[in-house]
């Protein structure tokens, strides 16, 4: 797995190698990457490097290798696998009990699966040689399946930077029960979130939960077109669309009283965004005359959403303008925002249909922090996020 992170690249290894092969990997990686490779001088990082120091560098992430163990009793291996896979409905708050930490109960193919219980060599176990130090020192970000419950997995170590993987369900549980622990963890460590294994249709989950708790890697099914992917497109339109968005300072540092940011906490309104939808045009150029209605012009309306922390989430809708390819609404909506730094403005145009589901007429998503005050022609996109040639909304934005 290769991920863009900060201004460098993280390569995640799926390691099922013997010590001798690990030594060969270390030699190949060092020879191939040369000065591009970043790794700590000590055994592991105690503090994550700055973005500047990682520019044009490559770092390695995987679980630190342990002594490889070989169980003589094959039945014990199968029993351990069944026990570690667990069920999410078991109600046990343990990492191995299907909490979705490092791997999901229905997704055993995750790259971060840990080896089975291998703390020591017992009577029925034989140890192979220790892993080579030249391989261990290349691992900049340590991953692995922690012991204990979900809160224990989020515990911040003062002497080590590590990477934790949660499936979407485990993230939701952590956000509901331990929101400040989650934010504290992401201040010093790397959190990866991935879709649950039962999303066989490539659908997606709500990414804003991960973002507002500081998760650095929120993985998507990129072929799963829909509202969640539109939000991702909107988030990464920020910062010039370069693919990197800096977290707000309050997610990286504690407040003046050493308080940790809690997305669910009620705060005073920081700013008010006024959005005016004047009119829309261009559908007659990009769609056939019968695309929306066979015998009459379309009946368009616009939906405007704020997606962010719970206190800021809101949705508004214009009136339906009947039989008009260039509808004029002239409607203004007001959105009070307590955390504008995490807010996204999602816009969607629909065509009203009395007998069936309303037809899709275009969408876009914009980070509030990047919106410029004034009247703007806002291009709309199709379901895949591709910009229409002609379809636009004339909109006005004002901050108070």
TrEMBL record:
It is a peripheral membrane protein. It is found in: Cell membrane. Residues 165-251 form the PI-PLC Y-box domain. Keywords: Cell membrane, Hydrolase, Lipid degradation, Lipid metabolism, Membrane, Transducer. It is an enzyme of class 3 (hydrolase). One of its GO terms (biological process) is response to stress. Residues 79-95 have a biased composition (Basic and acidic residues). GO terms for molecular function: phosphatidylinositol-4,5-bisphosphate phospholipase C activity. PROSITE patterns: C2, PIPLC_X_DOMAIN, PIPLC_Y_DOMAIN. Its cofactor is Ca(2+). It catalyses: a 1,2-diacyl-sn-glycero-3-phospho-(1D-myo-inositol-4,5-bisphosphate) + H2O = 1D-myo-inositol 1,4,5-trisphosphate + a 1,2-diacyl-sn-glycerol + H(+). Its EC number is 3.1.4.11. The keyword Cell membrane applies. It holds the Pfam family PI-PLC-Y. Its main location: membrane. The keyword Transcription does not apply. PANTHER family: PHOSPHOINOSITIDE PHOSPHOLIPASE C 6, PHOSPHOINOSITIDE-SPECIFIC PHOSPHOLIPASE C FAMILY PROTEIN. This is Phosphoinositide phospholipase C.
